[in-house]
Amino acid sequence: MPIVSVIVPAYNCESTIIETIVSIQNQTLFDIEIIVINDGSTDNTLDRLMTIQDKRLKILSYENRGLPTARNRGIAHATSPYISFIDADDLWAPDKLELQVAALKSHPNAGVAYSWTICMDNEGKNFYPGVQASYQGNVFSNLLVCNFIASGSNVLLTRQVIDAVGEFDSTLKSCEDWDYWLRVARSWEFVVIPKPQIIYRLSSGAMSSKIDVMEKYQLLVLEKAFTEAPKEYQHLKKQGQSYIYQFLTHLCLTRAKNKGAVLTATKNLWKSINLYPKTLLTLKTQKLAIKLLIAQTRNRVSFR
């Protein structure tokens, strides 16, 4: 039995899927299975996958049902005591799985291991700082006010956790990973590997529509989490909502830089501050405010 099942949802990713698979094949932990769920791709994704010669690779094709369902289908085929996910355009450092497995073995009360993230542009030429959180143990309150896991390509979970928590919510069109981590964090401890091991690919395509969808589903996920959260966490709700609009401001300023994006960023930052004024005391918000002022000046956006 392999030690880790790696699940790769794949939809129309012909330009990146091979690079992603290679980063999995290059893991220092060799005893793994790679389960690619071809989610109804209409480009050459499947043809590219069929060129890979690796006995650890399983390719399963289905009609398109979206990312959460693809992950769930992968879980159904997984045979290992540990399970990890990676999106078809992201990459891993070679020691990602090895160090995460070791961390879970040395922390028997933990059910989830996560690492730090760095970002790269769509062409894979330029790299930028990512999320580097160090929360461990009971992280539920931390996750309510910030999705510090940062992407669906990060965590390693025990099979016991997945069996207890269940499937990804297939009704969510975005933020299904944050929803899942929140559900896990209510009952399980997390452990961190303080090292950049997840390389998250940034894409700016149709960012305005993506931001609208992300706003809708992030608010939905957060509302659901607080509806189910104990009373002692309720005071964090506005801070969690503020985080969402801070995050959307960041997306507007870094991945869509036209005048419309600057206007949207302005509105989102004001929403973030109004919901939780103390966010002005954080370095992250202060940096966003400076970037926004510069963007407003460059794009001649009115301050009124």
Number of domains: 2
The coarse overall form would be globular
- What is the first-to-last residue Cα distance? 63 Å
The assigned CATH architecture of the largest domain is Alpha-Beta Complex
CATH superfamily grouping of the largest domain: Spore Coat Polysaccharide Biosynthesis Protein SpsA, Chain A
| CATH topology term of the largest domain | Spore Coat Polysaccharide Biosynthesis Protein SpsA, Chain A
Average pLDDT level = 94
CATH class bucket of the largest domain: Alpha Beta
Say what oligomer this is.
Answer: single chain
Q: What structural category arises from helix and sheet content?
A: alpha/beta
Backbone CA Rg: 19 Å
Compressed to H and E, one letter per element, the order equals EHEHEHEEHEEHEHHEHHHH
Specify the biggest β-sheet: 9 strands, mixed
Low-confidence stretches: none
Helix content: 40-55%
Care to count the β-strands? 9
Describe, in plain words, how this protein is organized in 3D:
Keywords: Transferase. InterPro entries: Glycosyltransf_2 (IPR050834), GlycosylTrfase-like_prok (IPR019290), Nucleotide-diphossugar_trans (IPR029044). The N and C termini lie far apart (63 Å). The protein has helices at 17-25, 45-49, 67-77, 96-106, 140-145, 159-165, 176-185, 207-228, 237-255, 259-275, 283-299; strands at 4-10, 32-39, 57-62, 82-85, 91-92, 110-120, 127-129, 156-158, 189-201. The mean pLDDT is 94. Strands 1, 2, 3, 4, 5, 6, 7, 8 and 9 form a 9-stranded mixed β-sheet that branches. Helices cover 44% and strands 19% of the residues. Strand 6 (110-120) and strand 7 (127-129) form a beta hairpin. By secondary structure, it is an alpha/beta fold. The longest helix has 22 residues, at 207-228. It has 2 domains: 4-208, Spore Coat Polysaccharide Biosynthesis Protein SpsA, Chain A, CATH 3.90.550.10; 234-302. It contains 11 helices and 9 strands.
